Amino acid sequence: MKGFTKAIKRTPFAVTSRIGLSKSASWTFHPREKPKSNDPEFDEYNRIFSSLETGTDKLQKDVKAFTDAVRALFTAGAGYGNHFTAIFTPMGGEYDLIGKHPNAERTVRSVTKYETIMDELKALVTPELELIESRILAPLKEFQSTLKTIRKTVTKREHKLVDYDRFNNSLTKLRDKKEKTLNDEKNLFKLEQDFEQATQEYEYINNALKTDLPRFMQLSTQFIDPLFNSFYYMSLNIYYLILEKMNAFADDTKYDITNAPGAQIQQDYESQRTDAWEIIENLGIIKRIVSVSKLVQATRSQNSGGSVARAPSTASTASSFKKAPPPPPGAASHAPPPPYSPASSGSASSASIAATKRAPPPPPPMKPKPKPQVQYVVALYDFAAQADGDLSFNTGDHIELVERTQNTEDWWTGRLNGVQGVFPGNYVQDA
Fold first, then answer.
1. What is the pLDDT of residue 197?
2. CB 421 within 8 A of CB 389
């Protein structure tokens, strides 16, 4: 609650300083006071620290994308081998595919070897991927948590800077006032105390960051470089495993793996395919499937064009099971419907009872459930996302509040422009 109260007190000065109405220490200040709003040394450290955060986040994403791509590669390769093995053994060994097609013997025998190679590669690469996750991704996540802690300290420094400018602005106005009342003298004494405390707090955290940030960034370089080198050699080891296995497969199956352009590979495929596809298209089973579908479509179109009439019942003879041909579309449209057969008295009475019976009334519509009331907060400062899951916003934005805690120093969850993420609670106030 204390942080929320401070945020409320900072709001008027933050708003007026952004629209150019306040006498901030960056613009006008008392001759005895030194402006503190602009610190070029800290700004340079903050810029380098922001680039370090961005680079760490990108490195983590790239490592994760690499491991996912390698897993997808071997999953697809293993599936490729399994499917082709099933295709070339259509009847579980009962059909002699090599005897019927001796020209395909090399391909049929190579498919099983390829399936074995893919399974072996997947078993070899899986420990390497687990090593990347434990030696690269896990340290990067720990390093990112440290960066977030430092970013919170930088944010706290910005808050202390706002307090410093706010008290300095009020103190300057009161000192420059020509005719002071007794109440002004009391306020002047209190403002001097508040300004002195704000100056001490700001200088303490500002000097601490300027002292520790260069040391941290130097140490982080010694931390990141080994991670990058380890990732390079681990990925290189995966490439070597793939190359070794695929070369062994090529030597065993007598495949030529010399470099060839894609157009040459496609031309070789077309030349080796012969007229297999034309033979498949001329198979009787294909033609029967096509003819049946066309017959069904023609029958549906004829039935939709003619009138629907119920034929009178006849005796159960052999001729009654024969289906009469449909009438032509032109004749069917002008033919009158057949006369109705006379109904018995029993069926007439049952029909009249069914006609007089009323249908039950429909159930009443369900009442809509009341929607929960949406709560909004207003951004006091600009906030740029520092990691995945953070929500960026500008001063004055109305953010839909999804989840909050009682402490404003925590990270809250909100939604803005259809994007949901977390943000510091001391950057906003209730709308």
1. 92
2. yes
Q: How far apart are CA 230 and CA 228, in angstroms?
A: 5
What's the Cα-to-Cα distance from 165 to each of 33, 154, 186, rounded to whole Å?
A: 11, 17, 20
**Amino acid letter, residue 244:** E
Q: Quick one: how many helices (H) and strands (E) in the chain?
A: 11, 5
Q: How far is Cα 207 from Cα 36, in angstroms, rounded to an integer?
A: 12
**Rounded Cα–Cα distance for residues 278 and 294 (Å):** 21
Q: Are 408 and 78 in contact (CB under 8 A)?
A: no
Which pLDDT belongs to residue 37?
66
pLDDT of residue 251: 82
**Structure tokens belonging to residue 409:** 């120093």
Question: Distance of CA 336 to CAs 331, 332, 341, 423, Å?
Answer: 10, 8, 15, 77
Is the per-residue pLDDT at 204 higher than 90? yes
* Alpha helix segments (H runs only) across 306-410: 329-334, 345-356
Q: DSSP of 114-134, one letter per residue?
A: HHHHHHHHHHHHHHHHHHHII
Q: 390, 430, 426: which is closest to 159 by C-alpha?
A: 426
Q: Let me know if 257 is exposed, middle or buried by CB neighbors in 10 A (0-12, 13-18, 19+).
A: exposed
In terms of C-beta distances under 8 Å and separation of at least 24 residues, what long-range contacts does 27-31 make, across chains too? 28/172, 29/168, 29/172, 30/168, 30/171, 30/172, 30/175
With a cut of 80, say whether residue 202 has pLDDT above it. yes
Assess contact for 377 and 399: CB atoms under 8 A.
yes
What is d(CA 198, CA 163) in angstroms, rounded to the nearest whole number? 6
The yes-or-no verdict on residue 415 having pLDDT over 70 is yes
- In degrees rounded to 5, what are phi and psi of residue 426? -85, 5
Residue by residue, DSSP assigns 169-217 as HHHHHHHH-SS--HHHHHHHHHHHHHHHHHHHHHHHHHHHHHHHHHHHH
Cβ 402 vs Cβ 387: under 8 Å: no
CA distance 273 to 164: 80
Asked whether residue 313 carries a pLDDT value surpassing 50, the answer given is: no
Contacts of 361 (CB under 8 A, 6+ apart): none
Cα–Cα dist 429/15, whole Å: 13
In this model, does residue 338 exceed pLDDT 60? no
| Cα 162 to Cα 94: distance, rounded to the nearest angstrom | 84
In the block, residue with structure tokens 């000192």: 175
Average pLDDT in the 400-426 region? 90
Average pLDDT of every residue of the chain:
76
* Length of the chain counted residue by residue: 431
The pLDDT > 70 percentage for the chain reads: 70
Q: Roughly what angle, to the nearest 10 degrees, separates helices 105-132 and 40-88?
A: 150
